[in-house]
Each structure stands twice: as C-alpha cells, then as structure tokens.
Specification:
There is one protein chain. This protein has two helices and no strands. It is rod-shaped. The protein starts with 46 loop residues before the first helix and ends with a helix.
C-alpha cells in the first residue's frame, strides 16, 4: 500500500481528560502525519437540546400526576 494522499477532516469532542482520539483505517502505523487542531465556533443550543440535557426529577408521565404535584409541592 502506498502513502496516503488524502485529508481527513473530523469534528471531535474534547474529553474530560482534555484529550481527543481519532482512528482511521487509512492511517498506516509508523507513518508521520500532521495534526492541526482549532476550536469550532460555539453555536447556540436550541430549546430542544437544552431541555434534553436537563436532569429533572419528575415522574415519567408528569401529565398523570401534575395535579398532585401542584397540591403537594
């Protein structure tokens, strides 16, 4: 197999240890590669993404017991 003549573009998320990991079958063990890291611009999260990220302690089907929740806060 000859030298890879391609550009690999990936969007990665930095982990809790401040690291990133990328694996690609086209990379040949022992070859030298150039890695350029630059942050992506922050995009505002929409309502749905914000709501899904919240951890609320509510019953699975709040509509069944919301009156009880209002009466007994």
């Amino acid at each position: 197999m000859g030298a890879m003549n391609a550009v690999i573009t990936e969007k990665l998320r930095v982990d809790d240890h401040h690291g990133i990991r990328m694996t690609d079958a086209r990379l040949v063990p022992g070859d030298e590669v150039e890695v350029i890291v630059r942050p992506l611009p922050k995009t505002p999260r929409g309502f749905l993404q914000t709501a899904l990220s919240m951890n609320l302690d509510l019953p699975a089907d709040y509509s069944v017991s919301y009156e009880d929740q209002i009466r007994n806060p």
